[in-house]
Amino acid sequence: MSKPEMPLDPALLTRIAEALERLAPPALSQADFQAADAFVWQAERARLSPVPKVNRVDLGLLRGIDRVRDLLAENTLRFAKGLPANNALLWGARGMGKSSLVKAVHAETNRETGKNALKLVEIHREDINSLPVLLGLLRDAPYHFIVFCDDLSFDSDDTSYKSLKAALEGGIEGRPDNVIFYATSNRRHLMPRDMIENERSTAINPGEAIEEKVSLSDRFGLWLGFHKCSQDEYLDMVFGYARHFKLTASDEAIRAEAIEWSATRGARSGRTAFQYIQDLAGRLGQRL
Question: Does 83 have pLDDT greater than 80?
Answer without folding.
Answer: yes
